[in-house]
């Protein structure tokens, strides 16, 4: 009897935090007000969760700092984030999960099944080509990390939120002897110009519609203040 594929055993985790004004996406301010930045972050998170709900997985975990909305909880097991830096919190996920693991964040609402298709295809068969999959971000970080055999030592100590985070993380995987597949590069939403670009990549989505509403609101505000 053949063993279940990695996809059939897959845990998909979304690491995120409560979208409170002044607590998330502070680099969106200015031009946005803190409440607008928080609402945009919530839109990004909710859209990411909707995408993940549609992906094949054995379980879906929301690794959360704060209290998620009732809508965001649907289809997920909510687990409080651990303490420490981001590397320690990601490593804790590896310790908590048995079997193949995919970690994504809340900052790439343009994420869709197509972006993950190389991973899903590779891990759907009886034998997989890659031990890990890496999704680089345009800012030098990464938006996705998938490990067939999660090991906290593969992440712990990697400097996060720096221009070479992705390079160091990828080197760590390769130094461990893993074969690593590469997913498409995506842009994180850090600044409002990022949000505008990302919105253009997912037209008609809740996120894109909210960005457009913000553009109109700011244009109207500038007109009034002239």
From TrEMBL:
InterPro entries: Nucleotide-diphossugar_trans, Trfase_1_rSAM/seldom-assoc
Top-rank lineage group of the source organism: Bacteria
This protein's name: Glycosyltransferase
Organism whose genome encodes this protein: Renibacterium salmoninarum (strain ATCC 33209 / DSM 20767 / JCM 11484 / NBRC 15589 / NCIMB 2235)
Lineage: Bacteria, Bacillati, Actinomycetota, Actinomycetes, Micrococcales
């Amino acid at each position: 009897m053949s063993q279940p594929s990695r996809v059939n055993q897959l845990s998909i985790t979304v690491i995120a935090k409560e979208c409170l004004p002044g607590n998330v996406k502070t680099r969106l301010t200015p031009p946005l007000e803190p409440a607008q930045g928080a609402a945009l972050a919530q839109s990004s998170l909710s859209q990411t969760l909707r995408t993940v709900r549609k992906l094949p997985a054995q379980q879906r975990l929301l690794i959360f700092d704060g209290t998620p909305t009732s809508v965001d909880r649907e289809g997920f097991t909510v687990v409080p984030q651990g303490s420490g830096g981001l590397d320690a919190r990601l490593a804790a996920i590896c310790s908590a999960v048995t079997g193949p693991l995919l970690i994504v964040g809340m900052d790439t609402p343009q994420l869709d099944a197509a972006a993950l298709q190389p991973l899903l295809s590779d891990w759907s068969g009886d034998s997989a080509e890659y031990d890990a999959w890496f999704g680089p971000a345009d800012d030098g970080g990464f938006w996705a990390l998938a490990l067939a055999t999660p090991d906290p030592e593969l992440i712990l100590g990697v400097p996060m939120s720096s221009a070479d985070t992705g390079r160091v993380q990828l080197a760590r995987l390769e130094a461990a002897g893993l074969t690593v597949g590469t997913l498409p590069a995506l842009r994180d939403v850090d600044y409002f110009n990022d949000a505008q670009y990302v919105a253009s990549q997912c037209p008609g989505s809740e996120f894109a519609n909210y960005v457009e509403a913000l553009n109109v609101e700011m244009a109207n505000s500038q007109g009034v203040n002239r």
